[in-house]
Amino acid sequence: MEDPEGGAKPQLDGASAAGRKDGKKSRRRKGKRGGQSRNAAHPASHEHSGGAGQPARPMEDAAGNPARKRKRRRRGGHGVAQNGSPQPPVMEQAAAAEHAARSDGDSAPSRRNRRKHRGKRGLQGRPLTSAKPSSAPQQESRVEETARISVPRETQNGAAANRKGRQDGPVNPGFQGDRQAGDHAWPEELYAALDLGTNNCRLLIAQPTRPGQFRVVDAFSRIVRLGEGLAASGRLSDEAMERAIEALRICASKLRNREIRRMRLIATEACRQAVNGEEFLSRVVAETGLTLEIIDRETEARLAVSGCSSLVGRETRSVVLFDIGGGSSEIAVIRIGDNRFSRLANHITHWTSLPVGVVTLSERHGGHDVTPEAFEGMVREVEGMLGGFDCPEIEVAQTGDFHLIGTSGTVTTLAGVHLDLPRYDRRKVDGIWLSDDEVSAMQAKLLSWDFESRAANPCIGPDRADLVLAGCAILEAIRRRWPSPRMRVADRGLREGLLTDMMADDGVWRRQRNRRGQRAR
After folding, report:
1. Of 45, 26, 22, the residue nearest 35 (C-alpha)
2. Residues with Cβ < 8 Å from 349, sequence gap 6 or more?
């Protein structure tokens, strides 16, 4: 069978070894070509390449012009008939003449296009029959799929899901927002994390992207003050439970409208302390279909660290991370040696959970009108709690080895006021560095404002105006215990830690790397 462009049909395994005496010589052995040209009409000018049965090379074309150097085409025969006997010289000359004529007939643009698309064609320039179809339509469909994720399956809560397009929520920290299609292995797989705290109810729905990162698909946050009055009565009030259940209904609706691969819904200090905490969670199941778990303080501290792991640089050797909540404050001391684990929480050496938060502290000392004396009283109370925390001093060898990380509404509020934002923008706040002097200046500024001035600030608002100074008092006690020249602000917390741990446990990033390796091969 003859090839369309001349010569015998190429073999499936590449260049033939026929015509080589030893069968071991490289197919790239072409001899010296300087000054040679290809002309089948002058066999006397042919210079044989040395091997028996190998065709001669034309020196000039039919017009007498030097032939253009071209890469040797690999043919099945290689100057040898299919029965193994050498081809007659006449057949060799005829094939060379046909090849030279075809070379003269090719235009320069066609030669350039052939070189450009050489990797997409077979040995003789023909499309490979076994080649995979073009991936352009697949890429286009994946982009469309990424832009519109619909999930019609019933969720874990048992209600029928409605088809809705994917809502792009705020892009979370260390979590990629803009990306190319195909950056993650399963664009349809979503994870959800809900954190019902003493002051807030928060939800995140996200999908894994690059290793260690994810993209937020939907988000929800509302101040519910579930722990209001808890310190005095030891119970969750009816009004507080109603506010929390109303927010949880919205979260349940968002979860029903999407296909969630895995979710984790947690409750923290308010439900831990309240006498009627379990009763409240049973009511949540009956009215919303959501089953929440009460986590202990150690788990809460580890989740806070997991959520902020991307904010700890490789040069850092020690970190004190704190999460000032509504009813409790978690503090983790992290020491990183030369070998850093993939999970930063594994580097926690000491941790504590203080039974005080912005809600409980402001209720005891008052948060509406706070004088410098009242503020100092709050600081001393927290310092007394920290005095019982047995933790060795942190040794700082050089600048940059140690810093604080704050993940709470208090530190994000300070950062927003420091930046003088017209409205709070987490993209400008998350990850920002504040020096020790800047933190002190912001605390003094807030302490000088009255309640109305704090409520009028767009980064505080009326919902936090009576809580922000209590949070500053907790922060001040932490700064006195662990002095640091700088502090990093994290607008993230337990939800991000939940998502990171679930994705890591499922191995989505590890399997994604394996799939990419297979595609590369």
Report:
1. 45
2. 333, 334, 335
Please name the residues in contact with 521: beta carbons below 8 A apart, sequence gap of 6 or more: none
Query: Each residue of 178-214: pLDDT tens digit?
Result: 334 334 444 468 999 999 999 999 999 999 998 888 9
H/E stretch holding 354 reads: strand 348-354
Phi-psi domain of 151 (left: phi exceeds 0; alpha: psi -120 through 50; beta: other): beta
Name every residue whose Cβ is closer than 8 Å to that of residue 126 and which is 6 or more positions away in sequence: 3, 4, 5
Q: In what order do the strands lie in the sheet with 260-267?
A: 214-223, 200-208, 190-196, 260-267, 293-294
Q: DSSP assignment of 205-243, as one string? A: EEEE-STT-EEEEEEEEEE--TTTTHHHHSS--HHHHHH
Tell me the C-alpha distance between 519 and 105, whole Å: 40
Residue 121: phi and psi, rounded to 5, are -125, 170
Exposed, middle or buried, 329 (CB in 10 Å: 0-12/13-18/19+)?
buried
Q: What angle do CA 11, 14, 15 make, to 5 degrees?
A: 90
CA 274 – CA 291 distance, rounded (Å): 18
CB 219 within 8 A of CB 205: yes
Residue 68: pLDDT band by 50, 70, 90 thresholds?
Answer: low
User: What are the residues whose beta carbons fall under 8 Å from the beta carbon of 400, sequence distance 6 or more?
Assistant: 315, 316
**Per residue in 247-272, pLDDT tens?**
999 999 999 999 999 999 999 999 99
Burial class (CB in 10 A: 0-12, 13-18, 19+), 156: middle
pTM of the predicted protein model = 0.63
> Which tokens is 127 given?
């499309």
Tell me the three-class secondary structure of 323-339, residue by residue. EECCCCEEEEEEECCCC
* Distance from C-alpha of 213 to C-alpha of 205, rounded to nearest angstrom: 13
